[in-house]
Every structure is written in C-alpha cells, then in structure tokens.
C-alpha cells in the first residue's frame, strides 16, 4: 500500500525533496544549495549538471534518513524555478551551455529590438506577457546565436531545450536512454512561445524568435501520469509538473476565482486565480496559465512578478556584510522604530511588475547622517512589502476584485516584522498557513490527484488551515505617506542603463 506522495522542489538557490503523508504532513525532507554564477554584470547562470546531481542527492538522503522505500510512494510531483533555460544534447545527456537564470538580463537588446515594431506589449494578446528579459524564448534565441556548440547541436538535430522541469523529467525517466521531453502549461506559458488560448507552441511566435519546435518539449496537463521514474525512485509514477508559483497557488488551495497568494522567496510572486478564461492586464501584470488537471479545463491567473525580495537580504549579507546570517535581519530592523526616511529599490536586474523597466537599477535614497544599519535593514524588508502593494493595486485595477485577505508562503514569512508591515501597507489581513511548504505541497497535491491518492479539490481544501494572521494596524495617513515615498524612490531608479 502506497502511503506517501513525494515532490521535487527545484528552486533558484536550492533543491529539496519532500515526502508528504495522507494529511499533507512532511514525512521526510532533504535540501541542498547549488552555486550561483555571475559571469558579468546582469548575467546569472546555473550548472544544470550540478542541479541534477543535487536532485539525486536530496532524494537519496531523504529516503535514507526516513527509511521510506520508493515502493511506498504513490507518485512524484515536480515544481521548479520558472523561465530558467537549459539546452542539452539528447545523445550525450550533457548540457550544451550553463543554464540562463530567470533573473538574467543579457537578452535586453533583443527584446528592445522586437519592441520597436508594436511596442513592449506586441505579444500580450497571444502570450499574456510583455517583451522582457525574464522569459525563456529570448534566452533560447541568445544561446542559438551566441554558442557555437548550441548552434551545431541544433543543426545536427541533437539539441533539446526546456525549463528546469523538462531537464529533470528527461533525466528522471532515463535521459539519453529514452527520457521523456515534456513540460506543462505553467512553464510553457513563461516562454513567449506558447499561445494562451490553444496552450500549444505557436508557429508565429516560434518564427519570430527563430526557435525550431523540434527542440521544445511536449506540453502536457499539470496533473497527469507521464511515465515512471528510473534509478533511485525506480517505478514511481511522475504525475505532476507545475512552475513554482503556480504550485504554491495550488498548495494554498486557491481553487476559486478571486483567491490569491503571495510567495516570498528569492523574488516575490503574487498570483490570483481568474478562472477558466485569461484576463488581459492593462496594469503591467502577467496573464498566465495557472494549472490544468487531466480532463479538466485550464485555470488562468493574473501574476505580479517581483525580481528581488529575499535576494535583497542575501545581498546585505553577502555583498555588504551588514548581517552575517539572514535570520539577523529582523532583530536589526527592530532596533529602530522606522526606516529613518530611507528607501531601497532593489532593481538589480531591472524592475518587473508593474513597470517592466530593464533600464532601471537599484537605488538607496533618502540617506542622511541619521540613517544607520538598522534603518537600512528595515528599508530592505519594507521594499518587499511596497512592491507587493504595487502588484495588489494593479490586480484590483485589472480584475475589479478587492481582496479580503492575502495568503502568504515562502522563506520570508517567518519574519513577523515584515508580515505586520505587509498587512499595514496593504490594509488587508495577511495569513500564513499551518503547512508552510506550499510550493512542494502543491506539486504533491497535483500528483496525488492524478493517481487517486486524494480524490478531489474539496478534500485538499479541507486540509488548509491558518497558523497566524496579521491584521492592519497603521494609520491611513502614515500608510499614504510611506507609500508616496516609495513611489518617488522608484522613479529614481529609472533610465540608469543606456541602450
């Protein structure tokens, strides 16, 4: 009798393997970080082989520590950092180039060139996305034009391209010995190559980017038995694929239109379920694929993507040495009563929603001799909350829905100071669930549904429970004054990078 569902959560900075029981409780877990490479300003890369090795290590470690045997696992779900792009050789199984990470800005010139004809939103009607360095299609084009190894493999018909989910599934199901080359709509919709209505690769978009369809994965439902794993998880059905933010939406059981969640990780991502039809955004949000259960209509979302949130705290730790560990940020920020008039706009790789300005760069403004380390720490935390407020305002404008509360998850939600300030600046309650691993849980839920481990969305919804809620406690005048200061600070980050 299979007692568990497992999930691989391959994130921007680390890979985790989590095994859940019938109640959605964690039965086993292991996690390992992988290296971040910054070859030059604006470039961010990962080593795909290191990610694959780390994936195998965390699976093995979690099983060994817990004593769980693969035969006890009913299915495996996969969730992944989105937009990060890998190209590899189907005959050797080796990457053809380092993976280009979603934060990378090397495709800015190409995106600007495309925008000259029809503007930055010329592809929104088909894709729901603006032309931006964030997305995968331009990354594939860059690799084909700038790597002779990639170009030769494409000519020879041995090249494969995909996001991290496709790379992992291909390896998990046999790699060069018959590995499956697939993805789902939540990842494919982030490429600028998929048509949101047909949920297939679009010939017009492929021609525009110069990407051959032969190198791309087959687009499948997010919850479906695709095949069986080989190796460590021999025989375990692989039964779900979801980009990390859509997985968190699923794990937070936001199954009804108007329900929303915000994930606080390396970046920050708010998704609102908008139902079975895409809702166009006129406020700088992304219209994106949410999830699709086998045999069911697709569910779409509005998304506000923020490039830098937790990464700003890492920057204070690793680049400036203001803190030694990320956990030190809250007590340091609590050492002062406010931000001292300082604001940090962390546009390290431009600004994402709702601005989409690749010319922006990070700024710290409002500095005086009064400002100290505590004020900088507080301003860093507040930056995430302000950016979330901008996204929520845009969602209200596009959807006409006033959120009554916001479900939150991700590594930063353990920070009580940030969560209280988030509730204050949004003026809505903010709720953290009891089961905090919502990204992995969403992938597990989707896999479990595919194999009948869980029977319905209602069963999953019944498992969701709040752990803590923060309610707004800030005076309206203070809220308006702080947010006005933030908006002014954002304008100071514009036009820093010339064409």
In summary, what is this structure?
The chain is built from 16 helices and 23 strands.
Provide structural commentary.
The protein has 499 residues and is an alpha+beta fold. It is built from 16 helices and 23 strands. The strands form seven sheets. Strands 17-18-16-15-21-22-23 form a seven-stranded mixed β-sheet. Strands 3-2-1-5-14-13 form a six-stranded mixed β-sheet, sandwiched between helices. The protein has a two-stranded antiparallel ribbon with strand order 4-7. β17 and β18 form a beta hairpin. The radius of gyration is 22 Å and the shape is globular.
What is the percent of helical residues? Answer: 25-40%
**Biggest β-sheet: strands ordered side by side in the sheet:** 17-18-16-15-21-22-23
Mean pLDDT: 93
* Overall number of strands: 23
Radius of gyration: 22 Å
Provide the low-confidence segments as ranges: none
Shape: globular
Describe the biggest sheet? 7 strands, mixed
Question: Distance between the terminal alpha carbons, to the nearest Å?
Answer: 61 Å
List keywords for this structure.
499 residues, alpha+beta, 7-stranded mixed sheet, 16 helices
Give the topology, please.
Elements: E1 4-10, E2 14-20, E3 26-33, E4 45-46, H1 48-66, E5 73-80, E6 85-89, E7 99-100, H2 108-115, H3 124-127, H4 136-146, H5 148-156, E8 159-163, H6 164-172, E9 182-184, H7 185-188, E10 194-195, E11 200-201, H8 203-209, E12 218-220, E13 223-228, E14 237-243, H9 244-251, E15 260-264, E16 268-275, E17 286-291, E18 299-306, H10 310-320, H11 329-334, E19 343-345, E20 363-365, H12 373-399, E21 406-409, H13 416-426, E22 430-433, H14 438-451, H15 457-463, E23 466-470, H16 476-491
Parallel strand pairs: 1-5, 5-14, 9-12, 15-21, 21-22
Antiparallel strand pairs: 1-2, 2-3, 4-7, 6-8, 10-11, 13-14, 15-16, 16-18, 17-18, 19-20, 22-23
Helix pairs in contact: 4-5, 9-14, 10-12, 12-13
């Amino acid at each position: 009798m299979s007692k568990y569902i497992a999930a691989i959560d391959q994130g921007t900075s680390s890979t985790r393997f989590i095994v859940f029981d019938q109640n959605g409780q964690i039965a086993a877990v292991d996690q390992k970080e992988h290296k971040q490479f910054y070859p030059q300003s604006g470039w961010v890369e990962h080593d795909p082989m290191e990610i694959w090795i780390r994936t195998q290590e965390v699976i093995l470690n979690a099983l060994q520590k817990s004593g769980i045997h693969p035969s006890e696992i009913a299915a495996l779900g996969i969730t992944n950092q989105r937009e990060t792009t890998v190209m590899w050789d189907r005959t050797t199984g080796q990457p053809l180039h380092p993976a280009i990470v979603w934060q990378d800005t090397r495709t800015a010139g190409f995106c600007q060139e495309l925008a000259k004809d029809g503007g930055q939103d010329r592809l929104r009607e088909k894709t729901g996305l603006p032309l931006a360095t964030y997305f995968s299609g331009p990354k594939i084009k860059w690799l084909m034009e700038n790597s002779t190894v990639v170009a030769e493999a494409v000519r020879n018909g041995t090249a494969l391209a995909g996001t991290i989910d496709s790379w992992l599934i291909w390896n998990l199901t046999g790699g060069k010995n018959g590995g499956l080359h697939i993805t789902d709509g939540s990842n494919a919709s982030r490429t600028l190559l998929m048509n949101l209505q047909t949920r297939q690769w679009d010939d017009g978009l492929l021609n525009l980017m110069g990407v051959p369809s032969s190198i791309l994965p087959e687009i499948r439902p997010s919850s479906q038995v695709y095949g069986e794993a080989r190796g460590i998880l021999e025989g375990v059905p692989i039964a779900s694929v979801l980009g990390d933010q859509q997985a968190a939406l699923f794990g937070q059981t936001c199954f009804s239109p108007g329900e929303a969640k915000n994930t606080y990780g390396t970046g920050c991502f708010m998704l609102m379920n908008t139902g079975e039809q895409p809702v166009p955004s006129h406020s700088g949000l992304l219209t994106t694929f949410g999830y699709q259960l086998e045999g069911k209509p697709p569910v779409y979302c509005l998304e506000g993507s923020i490039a830098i949130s937790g990464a700003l705290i890492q920057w204070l730790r690793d680049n400036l040495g203001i803190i030694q560990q990320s956990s030190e940020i809250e007590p340091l920020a609590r050492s002062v009563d406010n931000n001292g008039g300082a604001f940090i706009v962390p546009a390290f790789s431009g600004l994402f929603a709702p601005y989409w300005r690749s010319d922006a760069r990070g700024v710290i403004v409002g500095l005086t001799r009064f400002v100290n380390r505590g004020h900088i720490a507080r301003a860093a935390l507040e930056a995430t909350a302000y950016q979330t407020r901008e996204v929520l305002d845009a969602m209200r404008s596009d959807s006409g829905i006033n959120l009554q509360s916001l479900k939150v998850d991700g590594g930063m939600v353990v920070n009580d100071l940030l969560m209280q300030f988030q509730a204050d600046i949004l003026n809505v309650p903010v709720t953290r669930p009891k089961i905090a691993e919502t990204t992995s849980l969403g992938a597990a839920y989707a896999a479990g549904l595919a194999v009948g481990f869980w029977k319905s969305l209602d069963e999953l919804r019944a498992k969701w429970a709040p752990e803590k809620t923060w309610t707004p406690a800030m005076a309206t005048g203070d809220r308006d004054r702080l947010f006005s200061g933030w908006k002014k600070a954002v304008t100071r980050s514009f036009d820093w990078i010339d064409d």
